[in-house]
Design a protein that fits this description.
heterodimer, A: alpha/beta, Rossmann fold, five-stranded parallel beta sheet, three-stranded antiparallel beta sheet, 8 strands, B: mainly alpha, 0% strand, globular
Chain lengths: 233, 224
């Protein structure tokens, strides 16, 4: 069992290096995500205001701050899942300029969006069909998050960490440039956190962008930080 | 198109795996219809006369029974967020979910209807028209119901709220459905060349537009 795991990890490593090497040309166009003067109000209470930042292709921005300071709210605003009180969010440089930010983004939140009655493979296949991804991406996602061994199990019997990985597998299925990760390491073991870190590094190397709210060091070099203030400022 | 079909397939697969969906609606349909003769008494002529109306009322209530889970399951486990961010327009997502509901609830009810018609002494020559009218009218129940389900998506135990929201919109389906079924049995004054059936079809066609558009608007308003 232990041996099998290591083998899959080795394959993940190969995946990482190979996509780095033959992607001397970047997988995505040069993009810049800009937020200008953003404000957020939840339940009548201001969460943050005048928030501005810019992230370009190959960069990661880590959101840090205490609970309730608005990290998740910001990610949902960028994903288009939460109304923007004030300010603007724009993604420039995409081929189709009209396409909204949310069409270029993939959000991974606290909920795994895993259907318990379906098997791991059926869950993954559904999202591949939904995003119109080639079948090769399914295998890439299963291998990347070490789900291949579990593929025939109903998602019902997965542990919390395995479910989390199944949820994160959407990142590799959809192949969108902007990753919005909200506490992606919750319930993952140390080995899986390393795998996730490696996959994130690969994504950046391919010209992707990452916005992540996390308290765990994922070993991404050159990630800049966006500090959130105290509660309710 | 692939995303649309994938969504319908997933709905059907989930309903079959979990049970409780169409099966529960059919059993509810069965129970409702079988207690009617107990309440009314064994007057076969009377039962035969009220059969079309009773069957349609029971169909409406059975279809309502499974509506509350239409979007709520997806909202609770976070799937709805990802569906909203996909490239498939939200209107088509609502349409796919509505059709999924029809396939897993409406179709089993239509198949069960003639058997239950026997319990109510519905004449044999009325079975065909009953099933046909239900096949024409029942997609409207799922699609109009989707609007109610979308409006109540954020409400815990919103089943009752959905009934209150949706049942008034089911009235045209009920009226034209019953008169289309009855017209096949006795000559109803004013119903020439299946006018009721055509109006029933018109309600369904309208619901194919109204359901997805209104449902998508309700979902957008509820999620943000």
């Amino acid at each position: 069992m232990q041996h099998g795991l290591q083998k899959v990890r080795a394959e993940a490593a190969i995946l990482t290096t190979s996509s780095k090497s033959h992607n001397g040309a970047l997988a995505y166009p040069k993009l810049q995500l800009t937020a200008d003067g953003l404000a957020c109000v939840r339940g009548g209470r201001p969460v943050f205001r005048d928030l501005s930042f810019a992230v370009t292709s190959g960069e990661m921005l880590t959101l840090v701050g205490p609970n309730g300071s608005g990290k998740s709210s910001l990610l949902r605003q960028v994903a288009g899942l939460l109304d923007i009180e004030d300010g603007s969010i724009a993604l420039s440089g995409a081929d189709e300029d009209e396409a909204s930010v949310s069409a270029q983004a993939l959000y991974a939140g606290h909920l795994d969006a895993v259907k318990a009655p379906l098997t791991v493979r059926e869950n993954v296949d559904f999202w591949a069909d939904f995003y119109g991804s080639p079948k090769a991406y399914v295998q890439r996602a299963l291998d990347g998050f070490e789900l291949a061994r579990l593929s025939t199990l109903p998602a019902d019997v997965l542990s919390a960490g395995q479910k989390k990985r199944l949820g994160l597998a959407r990142l590799l299925i959809a192949d969108r440039p902007l990753w919005l990760l909200d506490e992606p390491t919750v319930s993952l073991d140390t080995a899986s956190i390393k795998v996730l870190g490696a996959l994130m590094a690969t994504h950046l190397a391919r010209g992707g962008l990452i916005l992540a709210a996390t308290h765990v060091d994922l070993g991404i070099e050159g990630a800049s930080q966006l500090a959130f203030g105290g509660r309710g400022t | 198109m692939m995303a649309f079909l994938a969504l319908i397939t997933r709905e059907v697969r989930l309903a079959v795996r979990v049970g409780g969906g169409g099966g529960m609606a059919v059993f509810f349909f069965l129970i409702t219809i079988s207690i009617v003769p107990l309440g009314i008494g064994p007057d076969l002529n009377l039962l035969g006369r009220i059969a079309p109306g009773m069957l349609w009322v029971a169909l409406l209530l059975s279809a309502l029974l499974t509506l509350d889970r239409l979007f709520q399951g997806d909202q609770e486990d976070g799937t709805l967020d990802h569906l909203l961010m996909g490239s498939l327009p939200l209107e088509l997502i609502v349409l796919a979910k509505g059709l999924g509901h029809w396939l897993t609830t409406g179709v089993p009810l239509i198949v069960a209807a003639p058997i239950l018609g026997l319990l109510l002494n519905l004449p044999i020559e009325g079975m065909g028209p009953l099933m046909f009218a239900m096949a024409v009218g029942s997609p409207a129940l799922s699609l109009l119901g989707a609007v109610g389900a979308a409006l109540a998506v954020g409400v815990k135990r919103g089943g009752l709220l959905i009934s209150l929201l949706v049942l008034p919109f089911y009235v045209p389906v009920l009226i034209f459905g019953v008169s289309a079924t009855r017209a096949a049995l006795i000559s109803v004054p004013g119903d020439m060349e299946g006018r009721s059936l055509m109006l029933l079809g018109a309600v369904t066609l309208a619901s194919f537009v109204v359901g997805p558009v209104a449902g998508a608007a309700a979902l957008r308003a509820n999620v943000k």
